[in-house]
Amino acid sequence: MTPDNQSRYGTVSRVLHWGMAVLLLWQLMSSAAHYFLEDTAIEAFFWPTHKPLGFLLLVLVFIRLIWAVINLAKRPPSLTKAAAAGHLALYGFMFIVPSLALLRQYGAGRAFEPFGLPVFSGFEGEKIKWMIDLGSDFHGELGWAFFAVIIGHISMAVWHKFKDTEQDVLPRMYK
Ligand code: HEM
Ligand code: HEM
Asked: According to its UniProt record, which cofactors does this protein need (predicted)?
């Protein structure tokens, strides 16, 4: 187990970074199957994982943020203010996108039990319209925007590697 230091991220940060990257790739597949392949066997395979996995990602980002704050002074410094802002934006998306869906789920009076865990029980009676509207207006849209920003993040990481004038940052997170 190596801790974070000025030139590279440590074991826990890497496991969180790459573990969540794999889970988010799966989340992209379930979203795309829902959007493009409705009523197909592919959607039937992926879609049931969307809510529980989305919830797990929300739990993981809490842990990741706490870990990042604890280790902030020890971590490799951001190359530019734009890079720091980009990473902050990724954290913003990691929080807001699943939170909006949970809000809608709650407001609609629907119980939520990811992996059999009773997070909240449903209720009878009037639904909470503002919660449903927030989720319906923004969850999917911001979800797609999140995936676009991730593609930007990956492109920047690779661009830094191949542009001679830039510092290669990949070894900070990989190797
Ligand atoms: C799939 C979703 C991904 C998300 C949400 C994500 C998010 C982040 C965040 C927030 C950081 C800042 C460090 C931290 O707090 O963990 C970071 C760093 C980094 N990521 Fe990703 N990342 C993703 C995928 C990738 C991929 C596929 C690559 C490789 C091409 C990559 C390469 C890097 C590198 C090299 C750093 C260190 C950059 C530096 O310190 O300047 N990331 N990532
Ligand atoms: C990081 C986590 C998440 C990401 C990136 C994400 C992403 C997305 C995206 C891109 C869509 C649009 C798909 C389409 O247009 O058909 C979507 C739809 C949906 N998501 Fe998520 N999601 C996440 C978490 C969650 C959670 C935690 C729940 C439930 C508690 C949820 C419930 C839904 C539902 C019901 C839809 C279909 C209705 C709609 O388009 O809003 N998602 N999600």
From this structure: heme b
Residue 3 lies in a domain: no
Ligand 2 atom showing the smallest separation from residue 144 Cα: 10
Q: What is the torsion angle, in degrees rounded to the nearest 10, for the CA atoms of residue 156, residue 157, residue 162 and residue 164?
A: 80
* CA 35 distance to own-chain centroid: 19
- Does 100 reside within a domain? yes
Report how many domains make up the chain.
1
Per-residue model confidence as pLDDT tens digits over 37-95: 999 999 999 999 999 999 999 999 999 999 999 999 999 999 999 999 999 999 999 99
Ligand 2 centre and the CA of 30: distance in Å?
Answer: 9
| CATH number of 141's domain | 1.20.950
